[in-house]
Amino acid sequence: MTYTRFERARIIGARALQISMGAPILLEDVRGVVDPMEISMREFGRGIVPITVKRLLNAVH
């Protein structure tokens, strides 16, 4: 799935918050990386972030 830049920012930020609050890290090779943002960006890059996006098609604002 292709995400917009806003969806990407929201997913990475939400995952970084989860990691900073003690959620398990899904990567196996995080040697020396302690920054939750860096870890969440690596998870997002590999496509293993456990967050989904629900889009409303033809939404009226």
Pick out its properties.
61 residues, mainly alpha, Eukaryotic RPB6 RNA polymerase subunit, elongated
In short:
Helices cover 44% and strands 0% of the residues. It has 2 helices and no strands. The model has no long low-confidence stretch (mean pLDDT 92).
Describe this structure in words.
44% of the residues lie in helices and 0% in strands. The chain is mainly alpha-helical.
Write the layout of secondary structure elements.
Blueprint: H1 5-20, H2 36-46
Say which CATH homologous superfamily is assigned.
RNA polymerase subunit, RPB6/omega
Please trace the helix and strand order, writing H or E for each element. Answer: HH
Helicity level: 40-55%
Unreliable residue stretches:
none
